[in-house]
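Researcher: I'd like a structural prediction for the single chain below. Treat it as a standalone chain; there are no partners to consider.
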Amino acid sequence: MSGAAAVAVAVQLAGGVVLAPLLPGLVQHWKARLQGRRGPTPLQPYRELRRLFGKSAVDVEGTGVVYRYAPAVAAASVAVAVLRFAVAASSWEVANGFALMGASRDLTLAVFVEAALVLALAVAALVAGSTDLVLMIAGTAGSSAWSDPALALGAVAFALVVVAETGRQPVDNPDTHLELTMIHEGPLLEYAGRDLALLQWAAAARHWLILVLAAQVFVPHPTDPWLQLASLPVLLVVLCGALAVTETLIAKMRILLAPRLLGIAALVALLGIVAWLVEAA
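Model: Treating it as a single chain, here is the predicted structure.
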């Protein structure tokens, strides 16, 4: 690994810990401005985390170790699939109907999200000629890679994955706490204090992971690793602005329609694979 690649990895990992809450804060701030409201500052998630970490946790009567350790497990394993299972399992132990409803919706959508995510990444891997993430970033850099329609189709599919994975409209509404419509917020209903802070940080880290992946693979970026690192903050700010615009212009869809949207994402990614195969033939 080159020096530039090593620095990029370190910055991206550190950013996932320190800067992750800034991304949902930026989205919420700009969405409020687009809607004509003053809204919170981009630093509001940090203030909320500081407030929650200063409070004690709350144990729901009748729960055990699953509920108690789910926030820590989710925060520690934010980069792996066990994150969703940990939070969903805590919802089952609480036995709160609305929490279970949100968890079941989250797990259902996860099936479609992961399928679209894998297919979109497969398009980028085919274009780059490697499944190694570093080589994928290098293979989709510059202008020549974007002359391939397959990568453009993969980018469209991944854009829908970003909306769903970050819990944004039209798939979910992060501003609502209406029990009948919430998805990602449902399993968090019973948590407070430090436990809620860990879960909110984990959600912010998901923003960081998915948006960094989008910026480094599916958005046009320089070929030089140092320029890639320098342009990353700008690309993240642009992507947060795009999410804010999307949430302002598009209303939340019915929950039963969300899998169809993600099915379209998977279909678009499949078309990207077909396009690459046709060109390679």
